[in-house]
Amino acid sequence: MASNQLQVLNALDVAKTQWYHFTAIVIAGMGFFTDSYDLFSISIVTKLLGRLYYQVPGTPKPGVLPINVNVSVSGIALCGAFAGQLFFGWLGDKLGRKKVYGITLIMMVIYSLASGFSFGHSAKAVISTLCFFRFWLGFGIGGDYPLSATIMSEYANKKTRGAFIAAVFAMQGVGILVGGIVGLIVSAGFESHYHSPSYKEDPVLSCPPNADYIWRTILMFGAVPAGLTYYWRMQMPETARYTALISKNAKKAAEDMSKVLQVDIIAEPEKLEQLDTQRQNFGLFSWEFVRIYGLRLLGTCSTWFLLDIAFYSQNLFQKDLFSSVGWLPPAQNMSAIREVYKVARAQTLIALCGTVPGYWFTVAFIDIIGRFWIQLMGFIMMSTFMLALGIPYHHWQKRAHRIGFIIMYALTFFFANFGPNSTTFIVPAEIFPARLRSTCHGISAATGRLGAIVGTFGFLYISQEKDPKQRDAGYPSGIGKKDSLILLAGLNFIGAIFTLLVPETKGKTLEEASGEVMDLDDHEVPRNSA
């Protein structure tokens, strides 16, 4: 294979880990930090929005967002991400990774800031503009998925490529953690100034008007890390694989990577032309693509779809789970500001104990164990822990067992991240040819967003308890949290089955993993294999 590989690509594949690798991880990772911060910080402030804009005077409980509003606020960014992943994934293969990368970052900065502004003071005006800006924020976030994964995969060496892409994705966990920390700091600052009583003590004073600035500050902070990395993102050269294999400019690819790797690289335009005659040039919508890559795309799409149903449904109703087991006091026993603090604390502890470690376990072991086994193990362990939570759910609600519930719940997130939440992001950036790599990753990610939308929109309804006393006003009866956890366990098991369609890429070059470059006398198609 090496004899049929361009020298510039071979130099990248065998390069020792060096400073530019870490620079690329940080630059791409800060985009993911912003992505996760923006997507998950909304769960910290939804209860506050209900108190501020949907309070009914004289009621025994604080105001809550109506179910249609809650669904919209929680899920609209995911709808934007779905569209953004498809559009920017396709555009990344047409215009280049670097150029489109800058566009997505600008959108994240602008719409993160805009999320903190609203036109008018009524509930309808505030929620409508919040949803509008968060849709376009999600659109930009969606583009960052295929581009970050593709850029990092095309920059990395073959020995530690999995760890590098996983490190970029691990910034998602850091973003969730920092979102909780920012929520703690902002709410603690306001609480020290206002000393608001609980809703039970004084419904009016429990939610001071200036608490409106809490949710705006938390959401707008997402623009900071994205803005800080824009300059460095624009200084990154286009990836050599795009420049050579798609733009057909071997000289430019060699020049760029000579500067990055600080070695002399021969351009080899004649060899590029020779290899191009051996390369498969069929399009995405062709029978040849379906025959060679169809099962792979089905595998990456189905596993990401099933994973995101479980992952996002848990994140977005975890505050209600914590309330049901007594980790969060009843809403009427807290002020609005205190409730934000408690929800942020719960998110921070889960991220610190379960979410963040799982990502970095993947970084440490993915190039040792392999993508396939980590993903299969993750799905099976998630199913196991969800069944252990769901079947004896009423056992976990007893005060003596609440800490056990939190530990078990954290372990489901640990194995989501030391498992399919990481690998479903990594593998699509490795197993498709360069000319379709960003597009196929975008399709896989967008299918995952469909799962996230199902998890977000569907489980706000499905997870509602059958007992009206245990539901918020206006919410219809669902199957309850117990049966929801059991249902999610079943979906994770199906994800383990579809993992069998995803090939192992450990230790292979991108061209070997995708079957893009073959021996000159070899026209065999790469087969799926674990």
Outline the structure in words.
By secondary structure, this protein is mainly α. 71% of the residues lie in helices and 0% in strands. α5 (97-114) runs antiparallel to α6, α6 runs antiparallel to α7 (161-194) and α14 runs antiparallel to α21 (480-498). The longest helix is centred in the middle third of the chain and has 38 residues, at 287-324.
How is this fold's topology laid out?
Elements: H1 7-14, H2 19-40, H3 42-53, H4 67-95, H5 97-114, H6 123-155, H7 161-194, H8 212-220, H9 223-228, H10 230-235, H11 240-246, H12 250-261, H13 269-278, H14 287-324, H15 336-369, H16 371-390, H17 393-396, H18 402-417, H19 420-426, H20 434-462, H21 480-498, H22 510-514
Index terms:
530 residues, single chain, mainly alpha, 71% helix
Spans where pLDDT lies below 50 across 5 or more residues: 518-527
- Distance between the terminal alpha carbons, to the nearest Å? 21 Å
Q: What is the overall shape?
A: globular
Give the averaged pLDDT, no decimals. Answer: 86
Q: What is the C-alpha radius of gyration, as a whole number of Å?
A: 24 Å
